[in-house]
Design goal:
The relative contact order is 0.14. The chain is built from 11 helices and 8 strands. The protein starts with a strand and ends with a helix. The longest helix has 18 residues. Strands 1-2-3-4-5-6-7-8 form an 8-stranded parallel beta barrel, surrounded by 4 helices. It has a single domain, classed as TIM Barrel (Alpha-Beta Barrel), CATH 3.20.20. It is α/β, with parallel strands linked by helices. α1 packs across α2 and α7 packs parallel to α9. 43% of the residues lie in helices and 17% in strands. The structure holds 1,3-dihydroxyacetonephosphate.
Length: 251
């Protein structure tokens, strides 16, 4: 994983267990000859256990989209770290902007989740990003720093290198408007300034087969967190190939 490019698929609230099963079965067979790209598939909770048997190769991991910070108890509707681990989940998306802005998750709650995930042996995909009005007001650096430092301050360098950071500007999510290379570089630079040069950083926000080659070649981008374009086998497969070919060319 250390130097491989990474593509994480965030299916959000899409796909039944049976739909997930059919998709993953097809994708897994295709992936066998792409060992240099790591795929993390973040499925809805109801699909996780159902598809877990497919995730037995080096470059194909199962991820969840959220979890609670407590280990068990009276938290109606929540999912614990142990429940994820028992479904062969290795990664968990935390701090996604939809959790922050639709469900009102606070920096404090997100931090508790990240700390708990690391303690339990789950690897966070920590999402951060600014809203359009924050960018327009020139507050991007301040907002990103405010989201990043509570997390980064709690871990040493080797813990930070085990997680993934995903820069997802809110205005680029699901809009068809991806961030420009210099905006991505600036955000990735802020992470590395705080967390060290060796952390792994993904870009997310309207990644498609049409822009994947340009975006993967932006300096400092280690891979993508893909939403809408990960729901169709053909489009995620094209993105995987763009990333794979870029990797081959750079070797
Ligand atoms: P889209 O790729 O649909 O813009 O979603 C990005 C995202 O939110 C991934 O977590």
């Amino acid at each position: 994983m250390r130097n491989n490019h990474i593509i994480a698929a965030n299916w959000k609230m899409n796909k039944t267990p049976q739909e997930s099963y059919n998709f993953v079965k097809n994708l897994r067979d295709k992936l066998l000859d792409k060992p240099d790209v790591n795929i993390i598939l973040c499925a809805p909770y109801t699909s996780l256990f159902y598809i877990s048997s497919f995730f037995n190769s080096e470059n194909f991991d199962l991820g969840a989209q959220n979890m609670h910070w407590a280990s068990e108890g009276a938290y109606t509707g929540e999912i614990s770290p142990d429940m994820l681990l028992a479904s062969s989940v290795k990664w968990v998306i935390l701090g996604h902007s939809e959790r922050r802005h639709i469900f009102g998750e606070t920096i404090d709650e997100i931090t508790k989740k990240v700390v708990r995930a690391v303690r339990e042996g789950l690897r966070p995909i920590f999402c951060f990003g600014e809203k359009l009005e924050e960018r327009r007001e020139g507050k991007t650096k301040e907002v990103l720093s405010g989201q990043l430092s509570p997390i980064i301050d709690r871990f040493n360098e080797s813990d930070l290198q085990e997680m993934l950071f995903a820069y997802e500007p809110v205005w680029a999510i699901g809009t068809g408007l991806n961030a420009e290379p210099d905006q991505i570089q600036e955000a990735h630079h802020i992470v590395r300034e705080f967390a060290g040069e060796n952390v792994r950083i993904l870009y997310g926000g309207s990644v498609t087969p049409a822009n994947a080659t340009e975006l993967i070649n932006v300096e400092g981008v280690d891979g993508f967190l893909v939403g809408g374009a990960s729901l169709e086998l053909e489009s995620i497969w094209k993105i995987i190939n763009c990333v794979y070919n870029a990797r081959i060319r750079s070797n």
